[in-house]
Design goal:
Layout (H helix, E strand, L loop, with lengths): L3 E6 L3 H4 L12 H13 L4 E6 L6 H7 L23 E5 L10 H7 L8 E7 L4 H11 L3 E10 L3 H15 L2 E3 L1 H8 L1
Parallel strand pairs: 1-2, 1-4, 2-3, 4-5, 5-6
Length: about 180
């Protein structure tokens, strides 16, 4: 029995078409869509963890400016990756998908209480939110798979350095969308 979960990080309007637009995000959308559809087809949980900031959050006030403010269009998941009823959607206020989101208890409750063992991470940004989510996953004992053609960053250098760090420091497997889907069987 597979004990994986697909974690989709920050595929939001503000990052794809809005205030902190990453043009490179367009190339991962079809891959993430294929991945989540394949996961849903065999009942692998799909969990979205998304920025939903308050105006006073440190990411907003100290680093990136106003973006993905809770309740705004910018904080909504892009239409191409709209969640379905069986998916889970969690809000985050920091880089990590684990910090005060309820992600860890959710993961441990799945598969009839046996819990998820492997996280398949995709979304934005390889060197920031993917990295911090992977760090917290690692320290909680999860195996980590990064979908190489399902994550992106502001620049190629940020993306490649992020992948290298994830592999070296957290032992993440770096696989393509096709390889991940083949591993679902």
């Amino acid at each position: 029995m597979s004990t994986k979960a697909v974690i989709v990080v920050d595929m939001l309007n503000d990052f794809v078409t809005g205030k902190l637009k990453v043009d490179r995000a367009q190339r991962v959308i079809p891959n993430i869509k294929r991945l989540v559809e394949a996961a849903r087809a065999i009942h692998i949980p799909v969990i979205y963890v998304n920025d939903a900031h308050y105006p006073q959050d440190l990411e907003v006030t100290r680093k990136w400016g106003e973006h993905a403010i809770k309740g705004t269009k910018g904080a909504e998941i892009i239409p191409e990756l709209k969640p379905v009823e069986s998916d889970y959607v969690l809000e985050k206020r920091t880089y990590s998908g684990f910090y005060e989101t309820g992600l860890d208890p959710l993961l441990r409750s799945l598969y009839k209480g046996k819990g998820v063992k492997t996280l398949v991470l995709c979304g934005l940004h390889t060197h920031i939110c993917i990295r911090h989510t992977a760090a917290d996953a690692f320290f909680r004992g999860y195996s980590i798979v990064i979908v190489k053609d399902g994550v992106e960053a502001f620049t190629d250098e940020d993306h490649e350095q992020g992948l290298k760090y994830l592999k070296q420091v957290y032992g993440a497997k770096i696989l393509t969308t096709a390889e991940v889907i083949a591993g679902f069987c």
